[in-house]
Every structure is written in structure tokens, then in C-alpha cells.
Amino acid sequence: MRRIVWLAASFTLAAASCVPALAQMAQADRQEQNVQENPWRNLVDSKRAGAVSVVLRVRLLEREGTDKIGWDRVRLIGVIKNSSHFTFPSEFEIAHYSGEPGVPDGESTVYLEPYNPASESLWRLLGGSGKAGVSHGSAAAGPT
Amino acid sequence: MYHEDVKVKNGETVSGIGADFGYKITEWHKIWDDPKNAPLVKKRGKPEHLQIDDVVWVKIPWHTVTRRLTADANGASFLVQRNGQAGKRINWVQTVYRGNQPIGPNSSPFCVDACTPDDDLPFYWTDAEVASPPQWVKDFSGDPAVQLGKTFADRASRGAPAAGIGTTKWRAIVSIAVVNEKRVTVYDSWVWGFDLTPAGVATKVGPRCPAPHERLGHLQLLRGGLGTTWIFDLATKFGFHVDGKVLSQLGFGFEAEGWTFRPAP
Fold it and tell me: Structurally, how many domains does chain A consist of?
């Protein structure tokens, strides 16, 4: 009986440890696919990309507003670089300082750094600003 | 004006303590010669003879000298500056009521700003920001060498609310915060904010002194405020965010972590 419990526990641990590995593999596949197939794959500032762990192509959905920090809701178009352990969902929020520009209308490339030291799921624009944290904007389509 | 009772730690000096609380290094005598320190002066004779666990009384005379509130297209901006030097034991605290438009991962209408915590401390500026102020604050204050220990800045805004939810009434109280160990003394508080109608018309509110019940609410929010630990550990481990209001009601918050908040005595 004790052995069964131990085996079950081992399986549970193994299964749990597989989750991030599979997620990372899926994300790596997605990134590779992005680079091969999508026209925006070269819309990257390599210097800024080297300064952050995450570079994404996104479309602005909504500027929610600002307190000390502003939050912009975006739709993920593609992953250009992701060396974090976080898998980005199809829609999420990006932070910026209240007095700095955030994600612009339309599509853009965003360079992200962790929002705070404790979080693996919250992200802000490089330097807390769209000045440093955004490039290759294409505002023609406007927010949806 | 009030006095902080500062317990001396290993290696601390009168001039260093004074600098922490906003004095120039050369102004140590303003502290040493304070009548409240007469018993200490009589006991030790010279500042150099200060001992660990001695209590030095430090007068806190600083007050806000600039309060510039401006209406923006969809909110308001507030710049507050105080006199004195920066001092690493003086910061700012701000609590916010976000009305019918809470934003960001923390969906509570009441919060300690940064409303989605950007560090584990109750103060407005993080240590990283104090060390390297955001560019927009330099621009906004007109001072490229701005010191955040002396300067508060915020630019609050919202999108026009849907007609169904009515006017957004965003209100904040900002205070000077003097930090002594984990005791925070909050004073020189100012209420500010804006109303934003469904038609997109923003009107600034304040700045004005808080009413007694508002001061009480300010302190209560600070006591129940949350650092990154509670919200984001849960998010990382369990994959979901727990509303800050719920956590506060469960007894988490800065007070549970040993922080105390008081008005100036």
C-alpha cells in the first residue's frame, strides 16, 4: 500500500514537472512557426530585444486607464522572443507608468520586462514606457 | 511638526540619522541641540559617544510646498513636493478609490497605489524608482535631478465610462510617509482626483484636506494593503489572481506583516 502511495506521488510529481516543459516546447514551436511564416517576424529592434526576456507582436484592444500604473489590454499576435517561464495567453494586460505612453493603437512590437520581482505572470513595457518598450507600430487599423 | 523617536543601531550617527530623515549632513546639531534630546546629551556628552539602543528624538518639520493639480483630457495630474532633503526614511503613500472603474489585475475599487503591487512595501515609490526616477517625473516636475523622496507625481486617467455605469469618481489621498523601523507616520495628506462623465468630460477634484473619516479610511486601507507576496505568489502557484479585497478581509496585508500606520502625534 505504501508503495502504491509512493508511486502515485511520484507520478503526480512527474506529471506536474512535465507541465512547464510541455508549455515551453509548445511555445518554442510557436515561436519557430512565427519566425518562418509571419510577415512581422523582422519587425524587431535587436538592441532592445537583447535587453529584455520577452518580445511580442500585439494588437491593442483597450487602454484601461492609469493609477500610478496604466494597464493596456492587448491581443497576442505572435511570440518573437520568450526566455521567461511564462506562457502568454491570447489576451493579457501590459503595464506602463501613468505619465508615459503605453501600447499604441493597432499592431506593434512590445519589449517586456517583469512588472515586479515576485511575478512571473505580470509584465510591463521596457522602462515602464512605450518610448523604450514599443517599436514598429502600425496604427492604421486602430484599436478593435 | 512632530518628533520621531529613533532607536540607534550599530554604526549609526546623529548626522546619518538626520540625513535619513531629511536633514543635511551638516545639520546634525539641529537634532543634537533639540531640547527633547537634553537628557541624551547629558548622558553621552558628545554625539560620537552615542550607544546602540539610545533614543534620539528627530524633529520632522517638513511639509508640502508645491501642490499642482491639473485637469487632463480624461483625468487629472498631481504634483506634490515637500521641503527638506530627500532622506531615505521619507517616502509617500497614496490610497485610491477607483469608483466604477478599477483597472489592472487587482480589481478591488480600493487600494494602496501601486494598486497592483509593484513591490512588497506600502510606499508609492519603489526603492528602484527612488534610485532611478522615471523620466516622465523628471519632465513633469521640470527637474532633471528630481528626488522622489521629496516629490510625488501621478497622472490618473480612465476611458469614458459607459452610460449605464454613470460618472467615474476617482479619488486619492496622498501623504508624506515617515518610516521608523516598520512604523509609518502619515501626515500632510491631500485629497485629489477627478470626475469623468460618460460624455468624456473630466473635472478635477481638489486638492483639499481630508475630512476625519477620510483620514481614518486612508489609514485603514494602508493597514490592509497588499504587497506582491500575497497576490503574486498565489498567481504563480495556483494560476489565478485573488482579489486584494478578499485577502484583506482574510487578515492579510501590511499590518499582518508587522507594519503599523499612524497619524502624526
Answer: 1
* Chain B residues touching residue A16 (CB < 8 angstroms): none
Which 137-166 residues of chain B touch chain A by CB within 8 A? Answer: 137, 139-140, 153-159
Residue A70 included in any domain: yes
- Tell me which residue in A71, A120, A122 faces B103 most closely, judged by beta carbons: A71
In a domain, A129, yes or no: yes
ipTM: 0.91
User: What 3 state SS string does chain B have?
Assistant: CEEEEEECCCCCCHHHHHHHCCCCHHHHHHHHCCHHHHHHHHHHCCHHHCCCCCEEEEEECCCEEEEEEEEECCEEEEEEEECCCCCCCEEEEEEEECCCCCCCCCCCCEEECCCCCCCCCCCCCCHHHHHCCCHHHHHHHCCCCCCCCCEEEEEEEECCCCCCCCCEEEEEEEEEEEEECCEEEEEEEEEEEEEECCCCCEEEEEEECCCHHHHHHHHHHHHHCCCHHHHHHHHHHHCCCCCHHHHHHCCCCCCCCCCEEEECC
Average pLDDT score over residue span B17-36: 98
Residues of chain B with CATH 3.10.350: 2-60
Residue A25 inside a domain? The answer is no
Residues A65-100: tens digit of each pLDDT: 999 999 999 999 999 999 999 999 999 999 999 999
Does B61 contact A at CB distance below 8 Å? Answer: no
Q: pLDDT, tens digit, for every residue of B63-90? A: 999 999 999 999 999 999 999 999 999 9
Residue A51 falls inside a structural domain: yes
Domain that holds residue A63: 37-141
The CATH number that domain B2-60 falls under is 3.10.350
Quick one: what percent of chain A has pLDDT higher than 90?
Answer: 61
